[in-house]
Design a protein that fits this description.
rod-shaped, single chain, about 70 residues, 3 helices, mainly alpha
Length: about 70
């Protein structure tokens, strides 16, 4: 887990989309690497899909954060 991810979790700024995105990216990275090492192109492709899904979830979380910050009246 990256220092940035741990920092966001400690600050309470990481919502469900960010957490799911980080999990998908990690899972995808593992599948991609194992697929490369074993020559399993299907697993490698699944890993790339999972990483892309994780990136999309992160963007969704960022958009939620931006919307929340824009409407925050503090």
């Amino acid at each position: 887990m990256s220092v940035f991810l741990v920092s966001e979790m400690e600050n309470g700024t990481m919502d469900k989309e960010h957490i799911k995105g980080a999990a998908d990216k990690a899972k995808g990275a593992v599948k991609d690497t194992v697929g490369k090492m074993t020559g399993d192109t299907k697993m490698q492709a699944e890993g790339k899909v999972d990483k892309t899904k994780g990136t999309a979830r992160k963007v969704a979380g960022d958009l939620k954060d931006a919307a929340r910050d824009a409407t925050d009246t503090d």
